[in-house]
Amino acid sequence: MVKLDRILESKPKLKKLKCKKSWLSLNWKICLPLAAIIVLILNYAAVAQTSTSAVKPSLSLEVGVDTVWVLFTGCLVFFMNAGFAMLETGLCRYKNAVNILAQNFIVFAVATVAFWVIGCALMFGDNTNPLFGTKGWFFDGTDQQMFKSLKSDVPKSALFFFELVFAGIAATIFTGAVAERIKFIAFLTFSFLLIAICYPITGHWIWGGGWLSKLGFYDFAGSTVVHSVGGWAALVGAWLLGPRLYKLESYGAPIYRYLKNGSNIAMPGHNQSMATLGSFILWLGWFGFNAGSTLKADPGAIAHIFLTTNMAGATGGIAATLISWWRFGKPELTMILNGVLAGLVSITASSAFVTVRSAFWIGLIAGILVFFSVLFIDANLKIDDPVGAISVHLVNGIWGTLAVGLFSVGIEDKLRNNAVQFAPGPKPGLFYGGGLEQLLIQLLGIISVGIFTFVFSALAWSAIQATVGLRVSPQAELDGLDISEHDMDGYHGFEKKEV
């Protein structure tokens, strides 16, 4: 035992190791590598400047910043698809949630292929043809004739992405108007045809160097090019599909929501939280939608467009709130949401060409228009539009395009009122001493695009009806398209009740 104790005592004791304190503090350890990186970048820039003859214009700092701006705002516009998905799903019934989400998700994929194969070529392939482009099929970024009408030094691939997300938005607009009763295959087919043929042809007239642009028609970010085209497609689709079915116990059989006595059955949405969040996303995305259309990081123009865009959305929401409060006795949330969206649609054509004060009135009128339009289309025309897409996008797309001819400040300094006029731009509007000239040009564009899109949509929808069919069966509609079209339940495990 004594021997064991001696062995334990003789065991060397472990010493605590002390780490030598580095002569560099944490801040220096971080700053030195960063400084080295900055020096390398500056040296690279200095070397590049010594051989300017070998530097391509596309690699300049200005073009680089413009490219980042275009791609960033394009991503904001892309994110608007999530806004539409949430808004439309929330404003429809729970039994169709999966179907509407699936439509809003896959539609951008369909639009991507359609625009890549043919749409981009028809829209931007030849700025000398007054009707449609003829070059650039299966876009690969190498055709130097593409996008000449946009007069931008941004790489063509960046321009393609930016224009693609706009095409995708046009395809999502009609989704809400035909919701809860359209076959999924019919929806996919029409989406492809719209983005491959209809949208790019009318877009070429205005943005692609076509005949309307040569006449002096202006639509800065797409009140007509995007929203009215989507709205016309929605109008024809909802009209041909007919109203939704509803099953009343007193009738014993399903009936259409428009009754013979002139009244109609309300079909409220199932999730107002989702609809509201979707509207917030759309409001955010609209800053990219409008300001990104400068296609360059012009500080003054971008800041001004942010202000006009926000002002119109705000006054549209306020107007719809006050009118619904007056008419219904309570402020109605769906009208508030659609009022904001209507204001945003209405300012899209003129956001770079009008003062903030004008944007106030443009949005205010849009909020009034969307309220009465929703009631008129539903009660008088008997066209069943579950989310109010026709009123928001078509009616206020038309109003926004006309507003250019009324409120545009023109390029004369004496008419600008300290506004930022993005050049090139329209002539002064009627309220700024320009007379009727610009207003009549805008009206001609509205009518031309409207007739073409209406006829195309009617032919396309009719062809789909004759082949794969447009509408699901009555029983499938009553059961819900989640089950009949996707064999899924959007709220599995929840107790659900039809309201």
Automatic annotation (TrEMBL):
Residue runs in coiled coils: none
Alphabetically ordered keywords of this record: Ammonia transport, Membrane, Transmembrane, Transmembrane helix, Transport
Keyword Transport carried by entry: yes
Family: Belongs to the ammonia transporter channel (TC 1.A.11.2) family.
Species, as recorded: Brasilonema sennae CENA114
UniProt record, GO biological process: ammonium homeostasis
Domain called Ammonium transporter AmtB-like: residue spans: 68-491
Compartmental location: Cell membrane; Membrane
Transmembrane segment boundaries: 26-47, 67-87, 99-124, 158-178, 185-208, 220-241, 273-289, 301-323, 335-353, 359-377, 389-411, 439-461
Protein name, as recorded: Ammonium transporter
Cellular component, GO annotation: plasma membrane
Topology with respect to the bilayer: Multi-pass membrane protein
Molecular-function GO term, any one: ammonium channel activity
